[in-house]
Amino acid sequence: MEINNNSKHKVFISYYHKDDERYRNEFERLFGHLFINKSVHDGDIDSDLSDEYIKKIIQQGYITDSSVILVLVGANTYGRKHVDWEISAGLNKKVGGYSGLIGILLPTYRLQPNGNYQYDNIPPRLADNIKSGYANMYTWTRVCSQESLIMNAVEDAFNARVERSVKIVNTRKQFDKDYSS
């Protein structure tokens, strides 16, 4: 399906670079033609810069212009400070207006025996917004099985910025360090 550039949403993909980059690359390969990628790639930002300066660069150079934050959730994503900062910025009206929010559980994420996920093992700010009804969570296997599923998920998140903005929860203190390996 050919998508008109004017109808493409600007999507920022948040993920734990050390563990989940291969899934980010695969996601972009499969679906990159459906959206305008606003994500940070390895090498885009000097990791020797201060945390505050990195946070500012990500907010002003990437997230300000994004309409949807898509979080790839692997085994260790829940405690990563950059993921927390990126979600927080996307939910901050002062940083370019509200962004929609989607979570995608990667194959590296360990589901419970019943096939469910635990709120304690996903980024807390994402969990808050799933619980409130603002954001939705999908599994990699399900959402990547059909192009229309990811298109619908992104469109729903985009619409939530207006339709469900009263459900945004962004009251947590931002992480000051990483809490997972």
Architecture overview:
By secondary structure, the protein is an alpha/beta fold. It has a single domain (5-167), classed as Rossmann fold (3-Layer(aba) Sandwich). It is built from six helices and five strands, in the order βαβαβαβαβαα. The protein has helices at 17-31, 51-63, 81-90, 124-132, 140-143, 147-163, and strands at 9-14, 35-37, 68-73, 100-105, 136-139. The protein has a five-stranded parallel sheet, sandwiched between helices. Helix 1 (17-31) links the parallel strand 1 and strand 2 (35-37). Helix 2 packs across helix 3. The longest helix has 17 residues, at 147-163. It is globular and about 40 Å long. The protein starts with 8 loop residues before the first strand and ends in an 18-residue tail after the last helix. Residues 1-5 have low confidence and may be disordered.
